[in-house]
Amino acid sequence: MEKYDIAVIGGGPSGYASVMRALDLNKKVILIEASKIGGAGLHNGALSSKTLWELSKSVYQMKHSELSPSDFKTPPYSKVLEIMENAVQTRANQLYYQIDQIQKLHPHLFRFANGRASLLNQNLIEITYPNQPSETVYAQNIIIATGSRPRKIPNIPIDEKIIMTSDGIHQMKDYPESLVILGAGVIGCEFATIYANFGKTKVFLIDKADRILPFEDEDVASMIAQNLEHLGVHIHKNASLISMEIEDGRVKYILDFKNGKTQTFFAEKALVSVGRVPNLEGLGLQNAGLTFNSKGYIDTKDGQSAVSNIYFVGDTTADICLVNVGELEGRHIVEKICGFEHQPLIYENISTIMFLHPEVAGVGMNEIEAKNKGIPYQVATYTYDYIGRALCMQCPKGFFKILVSDDEHKKILGMRAVGEHASTAIQGVALLIAQNLSIEAIAELIHPHPSIIEGIQECARMLLGKSILKPEFFSNSLNCFRVYDGHRQNI
Fold first, then answer.
1. Edge-to-edge strands of the sheet including 262-267?
2. Number of independent structural domains in the chain
3. Shared domain check, 255 and 171
4. Could you list the residue range(s) of the whole structural domain that residue 368 is in?
5. Residue 158's pLDDT is what?
6. Residue 256 domain-assigned?
7. pLDDT single digits (tens) 374-394
8. How far apart are CA 7 and CA 143, in angstroms?
C-alpha cells in the first residue's frame, strides 16, 4: 500500500494549489480527481464565463462605437464558443503539462490518480477507476477540495438543454432568441449582461426582491439595474416563481407578483442560478467519523474538521466560494499541516469582481455590512464623470466608494468600484485593509496620470478635506458624509 504525507481529493483551483504548495515543502502527495483537472472554476465557471463576458463586451463596444463600420455584425455563436473553448483548453493544457512534468521528474514525491476517492477511515482512501481495479492508499493528512455544483430546485425539470444551470449553458449551439434567468445574484446578473451585450437575445431576469444584487449597497445595485435595462434586459421585480416547465420545446414560467397579479411568460431557454451546493456525497466522510451540519457542510475551524487530520478547502466550506479564496485556503492548510505558525485566515480584505455592465469590484465592508454591525463610518463617492481617463475612454458611467472608520484614524473599512478598470483598481486598497492603514496612505501617493485610480485618491482626499474638486460644488456626483446611529450627515 502506497503511503503519502498528504492526499488531496479534487483537482480544482483549491486542490491544485494545495498540491503545489505541498510539493514546495517537499511533502509526498497524491492528487485524486474523478473528472477533469481545473474543476468548475475552469470548465463551467470563472474562465469560461468570463471569456464569454469579454467577448460580449467587445461586441457591445464595437456596435456602439462611432468608429465601428456601419455594417458590423455580431459574430456567429460558433466562433464565440470556439474562442471560449480555446481559452479553457489552453489553461487546462498548462495544468496537465505541469502535472505530467512533476510526475516524471519527482515520481517519489507526486502522483496523479484520475479516479474517484472514498474514505474508508480517517487515513485510508479507496480509489476506483472506470477500467481498472480499485486500490487503497494511506494518507497521514487528507484535504477535501471537491468543489461545488449548481443548486437545483425541486419541480423544475432541468435538462441542461432547454432549462439549464451554469453547467449546461455553455452547451448551447446558438444565441437563444430569448432567455429567462431565475436568480438575480452575481451569476444570474453576469449571464444577463453577457447575452444582452451580444444583442441577439431578449433577456428576462426574475428577482423576488425589489432590486437585484440584494447583498450590495443600493447605489451599486441601482446603477447595474439601470444599465441592464438600458441593454434591453427586462427585470421581473418582486416576482415569485410559481412554476417553470418545458412546453412544446420552450420554457413556460408563471410568476406571482407582490401586487397580486399572476402572469404567464414564455422563453426559448432558461437559466436557473440560485446558488451552489458542495460536492461531498460519496466521499465516505461518515467512515472517517465526520457528520454533516444542517446546511449540508462539515463544520470546520480554520479549515480543520473535528477529525484533526482531515481538512476542507474551497467550495466545500461554507465561507466564500471564489477561486482566489479557494487557492488561498489550499496553500494555508498545507502550511498549517507542515507546522507553519499562521494566524487563522481572515476574509476582510478579499477582492471580488462582478462581470457586469460595467464591471464591479469590491473589497472589505459595504454600507449594508457596516450598518448591520453597528459601526459608525464615513463615506466618499467619486463618479467617473470627473476622472480624466474615463473621459478619454468615453466611459463616464461608474464611481468609486470608500468607507473609513468615523474617527481620527480613518482606517479603511472597504471600497466598491463600479466602471471600466474597476477590477484593476481594487488591490491597493485590499493591501491597505490587510495592513490596517489609514486613508492617508492613498491620499499622498503619486498616481499615474491619466488613470482611473486617480478617482480613488480623490475619494481619500475628500475624506481628509483636501480634494481638488470640492463636493459642495458637485453634490450630484461627489459626496462625502458620515453615518452614525442611523443618521447621515454631510462632511
1. 239-247, 250-257, 262-267
2. 3
3. yes
4. 358-490
5. 98
6. yes
7. 999 999 999 999 999 999 988
8. 6
